[in-house]
Amino acid sequence: MIENTNNELQKKARTDLLATLQKQKIKSLRLLYRGGADEGNIETIERYPGTWGGSYSNTIQEYRPLENENIEDLVRDLIWDILDDNFGSWYNEEGGHGTIYWDMKNDTIKICHNVMFMESIYEEKEGL
């Protein structure tokens, strides 16, 4: 029951935030995040008056930061929850990083996620 309640709260928060951002004529957001060693951070939030193409290319018309710190905090909280739901402990151990695109017109979110890991190669030689 708690999980369903959290999902409903997340949907409501997303719907409310989307309406607020659309009122500000924001058509898309790009967020950069990075985590590791048990810490994570949404490092950058960029807003654009245009939308990302189907390929999410870097042909961006214009960049503007979000103007309201409270809205930025709400975006960070929502995206953190979405990352946690989809990539679990993305900020633990060696961590992960990526880019998130949120298209306001279609209310679609695309996450381009990278997992960082330590590699180990075991070798054993005997009777040399």
Describe the structure.
It is built from two helices and four strands. The chain has a single domain (2-115), classed as D-amino Acid Aminotransferase, Chain A, domain 1 (2-Layer Sandwich), CATH 3.30.470. The chain has a four-stranded antiparallel sheet with strand order 2-1-3-4, covered by helices on one side. With 128 residues, the protein is of the alpha+beta class. It has helices at residues 2-23, 69-87, and strands spanning 28-36, 39-48, 96-103, 108-115. Strand 3 (96-103) and strand 4 (108-115) form a beta hairpin. It is 32% helix and 27% strand.
Helix-strand blueprint:
Elements (H helix, E strand, L loop, with lengths): L1 H22 L4 E9 L2 E10 L20 H19 L8 E8 L4 E8 L13
How would you sum up this structure in a few lines?
The protein has helices at residues 2-23, 69-87; strands at 28-36, 39-48, 96-103, 108-115. The protein is of the alpha+beta class and 128 residues long.
Main features:
single chain; 128 residues; alpha+beta; D-amino Acid Aminotransferase, Chain A, domain 1; four-stranded antiparallel β-sheet; elongated
CATH class division: Alpha Beta
Give the structural class.
Answer: alpha+beta
Largest sheet data:
4 strands, antiparallel
Helix content: 25-40%
